[in-house]
User: Fold this.
Amino acid sequence: IRKKIREQIRDGADWIKLLTSNRSPIPEFTQEELNAAVDECHRVGKKCVVHAGLQPAIQMCIDAGFDTIEHGTFLTEDQARQMAEKGIAWTPTITAYTVLYEFTRDLLASGADPSDRIAAKAIRDMAFFEPAYLAYKNNFKKFYDTGVTVLAGSDMVLYGAPPLPINRELSLMVEYGI
Assistant:
């Protein structure tokens, strides 16, 4: 992992981003690899960010000391506190999961044909999108209140979402309590 990071920095990267969990509870990197990634970035004065949405990856990334955690979809209040204490920022990307949840909810409510490829995918994805949407809606304010630095960011989403939905991201943060 150190070699890959050095290559990215050599090619001009100012920040390094890793993905260690998507929709699987099995992290893509070990604790040792995450630690090495952070150590290598910080050694050469670069920031490092990680895409982590599920447990145990979120805790592993906090322990490794990343500069920001993107998504943190199923973050806990204790983890938000740990992030605040360590100076790790959180970019929740609430809009991404809200748009995906709303799209799948509306598609399913419209009586979409389950044999349609997009409808079938929506049905499968709803098992993730709804709990993700609710996790942000129900927990954002209490996580914010821990003192964790919250950043407004976007994410690549499908289904006709706006390409840079920062205004909606900020609106949802206000709607959810700040």
